[in-house]
Known about the structure:
Blueprint (H helix, E strand, L loop, with lengths): L4 H15 L15 H14 L6 E14 L2 E8 L2 E8 H15 L5 E10 L5 E12 L9 E5 L2 E5 L5 H6 L1 H7 L1 H23 L3 E2 L5 E2 L11 E4 L4 E5 L4 H9 L4 E9 L11 E10 L3 H20 L3 E4 L2 E4 L5 E4 H9 L9 H10 L10 H13 L7 E7 L8 E2 L2 E12 L2 E8 L4 H10 L16 H8 L5 E7 H9 L20
Parallel strand pairs: 3-5, 8-12, 16-17
Antiparallel strand pairs: 1-2, 1-4, 2-3, 4-5, 6-7, 9-11, 10-11, 12-13, 13-21, 14-15, 17-19, 18-19, 19-20, 20-21
Helix pairs in contact: 5-6, 6-8, 6-14, 9-11, 10-11, 12-13
This protein binds one RNA strand of 75 nucleotides through helix 1, strand 1, strand 2, strand 3 and strand 6.
Amino acid sequence: MELNELERIRCEKIQQMRDSGFEPYPTRTEVTSTTADAIKAFENAEKAGNPETLTAVLGGRLRAVRLMGKLAFAHIEDGSGRIQLFFRVNELGEAEMQRFKDHFDLGDFIQAGGDLVRTRTGEVSLLVRNFKMLAKAITPLPAAKDEVVDGQVVRHATLSDPETRYRQRYADLAVNQEVRQIFRTRAAVVRALRQFLDSRGFLEVETPILQPIYGGAAAKPFVTHHNQLKQDLYLRISFELYLKRLTVGGFDRVYEIGRDFRNEGVSYKHNPEFTQLEFYWAYADYLKVMEMTEEMIAYVCDSVFGTRKLTYDGVELDFNPPWQRVNLRQSLIEKANIDISLYPTAEALEEMMVSLGMKVKPGEARGKLIAQLLEEFVEPTLVQPTFMVDYPRDISPLAKNLPGDPSTVERFEGFVCGMELCNAFTELNDPLEQEKRFLEMGRDYKAGDEEQHPMDEDYLKAMSYGMPPQGGFGMGIDRLVMLLTDQKNIREVLLFPPLRERDDQ
RNA sequence: GGGCGCGUAGCUCAAUGGCAGAGCAGCGGCCUUUUAAGCCGUUGGUUGAGGGUUCGAUCCCCUCCGCGCUCACCA
């Protein structure tokens, strides 16, 4: 570890501490409560009229120190919050005051015992009678000072360089409490989703991440290799095919929350690994799933924020059911003045799009062209929570046809702020039809190259035993958290976003 | 992968071809109710790396590394 000047000074302090008999990294602590509990206890004691008897031993990280000669103020921070420490020569004596000044720096974890009091300015504080180092910090935390002006917290010179924040997330978290809050919220969101699904009789399961055949979505997989099996394996790109196998096995309602991996580009809303929620609900269809989606998101809003109206990028979003529903074909008529039913073939649609000056990949499937139109004309306009309903069959090989319309499937996607949040459909459960669809998608019975999705014969086998009719659902948790925490980049809701390894020496 | 931009002290930022600076942090003092504490003094730099132009480069040019935004890719 290469040390800069500040770090060398702190290492010398470690040596000084040891020389004078103080352990900089003791094994035990004597902490009796969190800072928040101590403050709460003091306030309760005040109400009861006997605050002068309250003592505590508190632990935390030194975040601010104000030395004032014969006294000193400091703030320590733990997972529950902050409290002010009040050091005074009256209680401690000259030698202990000096020891505090000599050995302790911002960023150190310390323990302090004493009496809870209110200082002259009214802040609940610990009047320190004894203190010890819990863990000496060598590297100074990035300087961050908060000033309260008219009730607003003004931040001075905080760690803000995104590269450093992501590479050293520990420092980012240690210094930027609003970053910590995002991940607390994220945990609360996931917890609420589990509560909601559990309460509706869904069984949480875990399916393989390493898979011999990937599927359930259109994406390039990551490939890995199992040495003993002498077999290449793929990191899953979705949970879908395994979860639906479970409905064959008799689990009528299953869900999984976990990581998907897609070997594709990174953007503000894409990360190569991301957290997905999928559930499958036997005897339901996409209409029921739509309603459940609305209720589920509302439940998350209620239990995490206590409100269903949240601001994203300055816009108030209303997550109260029901969401707006727009028919895919109708939305294109309204937003782009294009009726796709007038262009029944890919060729006709392509020709029309080219005539509009759009860049079109020649020979693209009709469904893909429609998806392109949606992205261009419709999706950016879907700001309030909206379901887009009824998708082209040829981009939805696992979804069931709309009755009486062989070119359209029962599928919806949920959009908020122009971003796709979830994707769901009435699941195709006809094994012969499913096989046909796979073949239409150009799949071979043999595993081909990475680009080609191999036929999953075992999935067809499962379906051939009889698969209950069901609605299925998938949602990107990272995106949901982005929306709920007003973050514009997916990295802000990932603890350790991927960054290229640095090549410097 | 393409385009645009950025990289200067531990952190946040100045400096534009002419001695590389400030605030905070640090270090040394003063200070018994502070909270961005204050006051006096002071240390700290391979200006991302390498090459080029120039009497002289943080600044101009080239290459590389990293990051950001954006476009493309993305059933």
